[in-house]
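Input (structure):
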């Protein structure tokens, strides 16, 4: 008889524009930041920083799309996309990287096949 393994449903979390969070966020699902986070974020899913979003702290996740600003170390296991409106100040550790024209990045980049 086959054993059925149910995975935990992934959730999508949102920090809206105008919201300020001081502290750390840990999530098993995807998260979108359109407000301000003063602290670190760890996600087993995708982190999206909208054009009005900002993070002052480290980011650790599987995938990330950044349109806003991040000041801190960014560690992305798979794909990091820096959109044209993004500004990243800090070192990045990634599997793959896409940088659109207009994106600002100040720091060091370290790329490995598997993180």
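Output (sequence):
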């Amino acid at each position: 008889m086959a054993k059925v393994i149910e995975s935990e449903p992934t959730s999508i979390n949102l920090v809206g524009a105008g919201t300020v969070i001081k502290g750390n966020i840990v999530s098993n699902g995807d998260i979108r930041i359109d407000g301000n986070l003063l602290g670190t974020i760890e996600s087993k899913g995708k982190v999206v920083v909208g054009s009005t979003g900002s993070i002052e702290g480290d980011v650790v996740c599987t995938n990330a799309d950044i349109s806003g600003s991040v000041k801190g170390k960014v560690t992305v296991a798979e794909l990091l996309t820096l959109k044209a409106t993004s500004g990243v100040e800090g070192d990045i550790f990634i599997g793959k990287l896409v940088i659109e024209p207009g994106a600002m990045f100040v720091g060091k980049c370290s790329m490995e096949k598997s993180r």
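Notes: The CA atoms of residues 65 and 81 lie 5 Å apart. The longest strand covers residues 74-82.
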